[in-house]
Structure formats: structure tokens, C-alpha cells
Design brief:
transmembrane; membrane; transmembrane helix; Gas vesicle protein; Desiccation-related_membrane; mainly alpha
């Protein structure tokens, strides 16, 4: 994401500088030149805003996917722990029954 942001920023900055230089060297009246510069700035602003919105959407999607993946992983972990807990309880009950049997033999 960082490379894409840097690339987009560099392209927009290059386009803005190129447009500004082209407008400044064009043989137009000052009012026309100012209008062109304003249009160029507005275009750059809109491009930057569109880029920001696209990047925000990508980040939102990644966050949503990460949240779903985390929820799934947590549910799997809880399910595995639940199964293991049942296995441990069964094992302990078996050992308790064995100990009770051994204790009964010793008390005779």
C-alpha cells in the first residue's frame, strides 16, 4: 500500500508541476492563466480526493477481511479448546474411577 500511495502521489505531483509550468509559459492573458492554474489545481484536488477514496475503500475491505478472518480463527480456536476440554474431563474421570477402584481394594 505504501508503494502505491507513493507512486500515486509522485504521479499527481508531476502532473501538477507539468501543468503549472505549461500554463505559465503559455502566451495567454494573466486572467486566463490564473483561470487555467485554478482549473489545474481543482483537477489535481479531485484526482487526489479520488485516489484517497479508492485507498480508503481498499483499506476498509482489508480491515473487514482481517476482522472476518480473526473471527473465524477465534471460533476455530474456541471449538478446538472445547473439544480438548471434553477429552481432558473424560480422561480425568477415567483416572478418578481407577483411583476409586484402587482405594476400594486397599480398604478391604
Amino acid at each position: 500500500m505504501s508503494n502505491n500511495s507513493n507512486t500515486i502521489a509522485a504521479i499527481l505531483a508531476g502532473a501538477a508541476v507539468g501543468a503549472a509550468i505549461g500554463i505559465l509559459f503559455a502566451p495567454d492573458k494573466g486572467s486566463k492563466t490564473r483561470a487555467k492554474i485554478k482549473e489545474g489545481i481543482d483537477d489535481a484536488k479531485h484526482n487526489l480526493q479520488d485516489s484517497f477514496e479508492a485507498s480508503s475503500e481498499v483499506l476498509r475491505e482489508k480491515f473487514t477481511n482481517a476482522t472476518h478472518n480473526l473471527d473465524g480463527t477465534l471460533n476455530d480456536l474456541l471449538s478446538n479448546v472445547s473439544h480438548k476440554t471434553e477429552e481432558v474431563i473424560t480422561f480425568l474421570e477415567s483416572k478418578l474411577a481407577d483411583l476409586k477402584a484402587q482405594n476400594a481394594k486397599l480398604q478391604k
